[in-house]
Amino acid sequence: MKPEERLEQIFRENENKGMAVAITGSWGVGKTFFWNTFRKNNPNKKKYVYVSLFGLESLSDLKTHIYSHIENNSSAIEIPRWIRGLPSILKETKISQFGISSSAKIFDSLMFNQVKDAIICFDDFERMSNKLDIKDVMGLANQLKLERNCQVILILDESKTENENKKKYVEYKEKLIDEEIKITSVEPLIRASTQGIDAPLIDLMVEFAEKLEIHNFRFFQKVIKLYGKFIEQLPKEVAYSTKEIILIRVLQGYFIEDFGKEYKFGWDDIKLVFEEKQKDWSKRRQKTYESLKLIAYDFVYADEWLIEFKKYFDQIQEPDFIRLAELANSHLISEYNHNVRSELERLMMQWRNLEINSQFCQKLYDASCKRIGFESLENLNFYYELLVEFGDESLACELEEKIKRWLQERYISTGHSFVEDQFSFGFKSENKFHIYLKKLNDELPYQGLPSLIEIIYQYVGHSGWNSHTDSQVLRSATKADWKDLIFNGISKDERFKEFHKLGVLRKILNQQMNVELQPQINALIFEVLDDEAKVSNPVRQKNIEYVIKRLKE
């Protein structure tokens, strides 16, 4: 029987009886949401009050809150709220009449005595003040149940109750609680908070919650919010597969961020791994990997989407939304490419199930070739190894050559930034394509690096820099490069029209891009200025010498 059906049955069977029901579950699972939804779907004419124990510091405060906030859902005449609220105003205020001194506490007591035949919900036990004893709260709940014929609901996470209070709670639980409703799933909360999201994606979140045993809705609130943020950055019309991969990457990122240590799963585990290579893994890590793979293959599958999302979660930089839009519009999410992905997944299942046939290697080769540029080098290396393992060295060599050709083309056009992206999960010395790309980078270390004037503009104009690439450019800049920048580049570049050379040079001479390079940079710049002064006419010479003097101040 579902929790809401069980609770409805409890209320039906105890319609005119006092009772106490505990709604329990882990923190963030949606206990309060469950209760509020139940009330909405099962209207009751009884008076009702919701009591958050957070902020209440005495039994007197608790009683005052109960009668001053009680709601009358029937048509009977009730005490006006302004009268019920008097004690909270007059608390501890002495009133003298006919020579007799009395306290607002008397009024407090009289009003509380009127509370009967009501539904009273106590919540936030975990956040209860240490000035309020749980023994007093449970005792009051018991009094309301037995003496006032009230139906009491207690919403709590027993595991979060403080040790001393936990002992007292256990002591009273047996005497007070008649029924217990355990909330173990965040599914209702997820479904209620995902309007406008495709139904299969909602199902994916629910399955993720169940298989990974994540019962904290605050986790999914973050996921839903970030998913929406990324979707907003893309064209209005995107394929379902694009939405799915974005949701998977967001789930993945927050999972690693919030639960990675506990579940023994990190960014480096997002790859295809032979079972024999998992033998040194902990049981928890193996279970996590298999659970993620069963939910969706993309959870253990690296691609360009993963590279961009990892940037966000590592807080290195914002993802390249232009690149993400390109991916969304490219054949990466086309039906054709989706079919290729499905074919690769089917082939992976074939060998795992001992079902490969004579066409397996050819099909694997064909599908792998179509995915060059979209698969991670980890996956491509894995497909290459499978071809070798299953005896087709010829196809393995052809695949290797095609991948290396693509790597060379991309490196020549984009340089070191391409290497950074491909090695964002670390350099793998056993991966032949990582080795090849590293060799390219070693042989052509300055390929694709920004120009000296470009990094100076970004630094002077926007106070921005890339600590890796910019350091390489500064380190390799020659005296001739600095001369060209100072006496040609800055003058001709429209972006510098709002800056004067003295200000630009001052900023360069105190740059923070790489402090260790400062002596080298300063020496070259002053040499350039000295040389230029020597070959200039007397007037210009004095101008340059004065600038040098100001720069050295």
Largest sheet properties? 5 strands, parallel
Proportion of residues in helical segments:
55-70%
CATH architecture field of the largest domain: 3-Layer(aba) Sandwich
| CATH topology description of the largest domain | Rossmann fold
Description:
The protein contains 27 helices and seven strands. The chain is of the alpha/beta class and 553 residues long. The chain has four domains: 3-87 and 105-183, Rossmann fold, CATH 3.40.50.300; 188-319, no CATH class; 330-443; 452-552, no CATH class. The strands form two sheets. A five-stranded parallel β-sheet has the order 2-5-6-1-7, sandwiched between helices. Residues 92-101 have low confidence and may be disordered.
Strand and helix layout:
Blueprint: H1 3-13, E1 19-24, H2 31-41, E2 47-52, H3 59-69, H4 81-84, H5 86-90, E3 94-97, E4 100-103, H6 104-112, E5 118-123, H7 134-146, E6 151-156, H8 163-176, E7 179-182, H9 187-192, H10 199-211, H11 217-232, H12 240-263, H13 283-295, H14 304-313, H15 321-329, H16 335-352, H17 360-370, H18 377-389, H19 393-414, H20 416-422, H21 432-443, H22 452-462, H23 469-476, H24 479-492, H25 501-509, H26 518-534, H27 538-552
Parallel strand pairs: 1-6, 1-7, 2-5, 5-6
Antiparallel strand pairs: 3-4
Helix pairs in contact: 3-6, 7-8, 11-12, 12-14, 16-17, 17-18, 17-19, 18-19, 19-21, 24-26, 26-27
